[in-house]
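Q: Sequence in, structure out?
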Amino acid sequence: MATPEKKSQKITVVGSGSIGSGWAIVFARAGFPVTLHDISVGQLENAAAVIGLRLAELDGFRLLVDLPAAVAERICYDATLATALAGADLVIEAAPENLAVKRALFASLAAGTHGGAILASSSSAITATAIADGLPAGFRCLVAHPGNPPYLLPVVEIVPAAFTAPEIVKAAQGLFAQAGMSVVTLGREVEGFVFNRLQGAMLREAYCLVRDGVVSVDDLDKIMRDGLGMRYAFIGPFETSDLNVRGGISAHATRMAAAYQRMGAERGQNDPWTSDLVETVASQRREKLPLERWDDRVAWRDRRLMALNRLKQDLAQGDG
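A: Exactly. Output:
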């Protein structure tokens, strides 16, 4: 890996829990100067210790370009919000998932930053509209929702409100991409965004299957760990379906749509895969993968599964 270029934009993270500390690692690792703020000096001291441990672990797995000490030096800790915000180009709020707390905090963030600073919430489900509606600086506000921990799950959902300025969205996309994140920008706000709606759908069904006596908790986790999770480690559900049936996702829908609709109806859901919807999905898949390359991609998938099986076997032997 090439040494990260030193970045000039200042990143301030407000809240030093697991998400806030994780964001500090993400941006410092990519070469950005980072200020981590918390109202508790003791919490900041704890965060510094945890970040040091995480950087050492990342280095042990060869996931850092620079030495851990060099990355750590890019992070400073400040218990005073005003000085932490001074000169910040991107502020990431990582406070508790409480709307009243976030609204009050965003008012302070807006007052303490320059007029072009991006104000991003790492909310898990609360939208930017709920957080920043009525705020004069609302045009600078959006959600940047990560997985946890963000330095190991490199995806971020950028979710603007209707009042978020397009140039703010573009600037946020650029900064998170420079930090090594896979950036997904949602077309509109929905509670929980995409990450947690997918996760929630899986958990709802998992709970129901346990409740109904279909499967034990451990066996359900086995199905995810040794089955679905293996594929989803490097391809998503649409590509999985696309590669599972010759002819691609249109053929998969023809074969499976009715069965999935019946399964949904058992849970009171009525979300059929209409022909128009299938065509929309299929056309996007064909843009990514023309059918004449389907066999090559299936072979690629199988090689990745072989490599993942080998890795899991090696890890299991190491655990023994």
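The chain has a mean pLDDT of 96.
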